[in-house]
Amino acid sequence: MTVPFKGINNERELLLQIAQGDRAAFKTLYTAYFPHVQQYVSLFEPGKDNLDELTQDVFVRIWEKRVRLAGVESLKGYIFLITRNVVFNFIRAMRVRQRERELDETTDVISNDLEHDLLFRQYYQLAQEAMDKLPTGRRKVLKMSIDDGLTLDEIAEQLNITRAGVKKQLYAATAFVRQYLQEHGEMTLLLFVFLSLFEL
After folding, report:
1. Which distant-in-sequence residues (6+ apart) come within 8 Å of 101 by Cβ?
2. Which of 63, 61, 78, 60 has the alpha carbon at shortest distance from 22?
3. pTM of the predicted model as reported, rounded to 2 decimal places
């Protein structure tokens, strides 16, 4: 069931307070966004234990990088960018855990795990191929956004280009990667989830 988003009053002031270490302000943000972050995470990981842990990880990262909030223009966009990165890292970690599972698991479970792992390998490789085909500058902007979790302003400052230029390059890059995955990947539920990692 979709949770309606009501937003936060005085969002700009709230972000500045959190950036300065105001825990009460952070609690307001946490309360407002927790159900929406958890709902988004649930699209990737339905298990309750992992769902709660991943949702908490998102807010831990927000708090750890709270100084960045002073320059954030879209709180909703920023939070879901961090959520996407947390989930992406979790999916990659799943590959390691799958290799470490005990050999006494049932044949069906092993078969399903291997199939999931092979599909993820395929999609990850396709995404890398697509990113390699991007112009150097565009590829760098995408990696800074996905791998480093940087905001548009932070990328613009580091690359010494305008925020509008960063946004244009980022949208073009993600659109190209999504199209490449759709054209070259087998259409499965996992691909649908993987594609959402390249949405802005």
Report:
1. 110, 113
2. 63
3. 0.50
d(CA 58, CA 56) in angstroms, rounded, equals: 5
- Enumerate helices (H) and strands (E) in the chain, giving the number of each: 9, 0
- Report all structural domains of the chain as residue ranges with CATH numbers, in order of start: 1-100 (1.10.1740.10), 106-200 (1.10.10.10)
User: Could you give the C-alpha distances from 152 to 6, 17, 104, 196, in angstroms and in order?
Assistant: 25, 21, 48, 19
For residue range 30-85, what is the model confidence (pLDDT) as tens digits? 998 998 888 888 877 556 667 888 889 999 999 999 998 888 888 888 888 888 88
- Which residue, among 99, 155, 98, 88, has the nearest Cα to 123 in the 3D structure? 88
Q: Are 181 and 193 in contact (CB under 8 A)?
A: no
Token pair of 113, please? 């795990």
Residue 150 tokens, joined:
């940087």
At residue 142, the pLDDT reads 84
Amino acid residing at 129: E
